[in-house]
């Protein structure tokens, strides 16, 4: 079979991801019935859904299992950093209810979410952990899908103190920037460590099977060798990964400055 055809047939629909999609549909029904929802809220929501399908269900997910480590990294960046930010950006401002205030008090734990997020980010790139997650031993329970969902939840909780708060207890914008920039440093250090490692860290992504059309496509047609694959993965974590945090930080700063200008104009 042609490698491209074999790859394009690999759309994956694990049960846990279907459950996540159903939760998203419930979120739409619950959160998007108010008059404050605008175009950009809908845009952020559908962008999050499309990227979730691309990262978790499309052939990219199949490549990320054992063929290309940089595909694994793309999925990781989308699930842990991009989709959660879009998720919170899609929430329209509204009058907060007492129940939501209680929920915010429960979830607002920046001293927990920040180290937890970095631990998840680094732990999922420890070579032994990557080998376990990618092992055929766990194929029956689709361990990678569960890891992806847990990463998504970790990302959503991480962004909550800076993007999800709706009450007056929201963090000061400068604290939000410090929260994100320090996470960016952790992301950069991980990317640099992977990109410039003197040895191959992830041997599970280095194989070439002549009987596997996707493996032949990757190694012989695309000519992506293990060393190049690992370097690209590290650069993806280092540069685009850090730019995500910096972009969110700049957005928060601009919103804060515009708010200050409006208050001065009213005064």
From TrEMBL:
Keywords from the named record: Cell membrane, Membrane, Plasmid, Transmembrane, Transmembrane helix
InterPro entries attached to this UniProt entry? Caa3_assmbl_CtaG-rel (IPR019108)
Membrane-crossing segments per the record: 12-28, 40-63, 69-91, 111-131, 143-164, 176-196, 235-257
* Keyword Cell membrane assigned: yes
The source's domain of life comes to Bacteria
Where in or outside the cell it occurs: the entry states:
Cell membrane
Q: How does it sit in the membrane?
A: Multi-pass membrane protein
**GO CC entries:** plasma membrane
The entry's protein name is Membrane protein
Q: Which organism is it from?
A: Fulvitalea axinellae
């Amino acid at each position: 079979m042609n490698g491209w055809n074999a790859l394009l047939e690999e759309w994956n629909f694990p049960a846990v991801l279907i459950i996540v999609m159903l939760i998203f549909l419930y979120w739409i029904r619950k959160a998007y019935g108010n008059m404050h929802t605008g175009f950009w809220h809908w845009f952020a929501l559908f962008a999050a859904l499309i990227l979730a399908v691309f990262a978790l269900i499309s052939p990219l997910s199949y490549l990320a299992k054992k063929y290309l480590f940089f595909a694994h990294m793309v999925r990781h960046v989308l699930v842990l950093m991009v989709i959660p930010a879009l998720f919170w950006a899609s929430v329209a401002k509204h009058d907060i209810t007492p129940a939501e205030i209680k929920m915010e008090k429960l979830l607002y734990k920046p001293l927990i979410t920040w180290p937890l997020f970095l631990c998840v980010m680094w732990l999922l790139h420890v070579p032994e952990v990557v080998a376990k997650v990618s092992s055929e031993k766990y194929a029956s329970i689709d361990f990678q899908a569960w890891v992806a969902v847990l990463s998504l939840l970790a990302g959503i909780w991480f962004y909550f103190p800076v993007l999800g708060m709706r009450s007056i207890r929201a963090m000061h914008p400068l604290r939000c920037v410090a929260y994100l920039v320090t996470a960016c440093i952790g992301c950069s250090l991980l990317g640099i460590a992977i990109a410039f490692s003197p040895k191959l860290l992830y041997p599970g992504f280095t194989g070439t099977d002549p009987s596997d059309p996707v493996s032949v496509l990757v190694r012989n047609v695309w000519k992506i060798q293990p060393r190049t694959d690992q370097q690209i993965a590290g650069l993806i974590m280092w540069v685009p990964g850090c730019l995500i945090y910096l972009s969110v930080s700049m957005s928060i700063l601009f919103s804060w400055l515009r708010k200050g200008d409006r208050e001065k104009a009213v005064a």
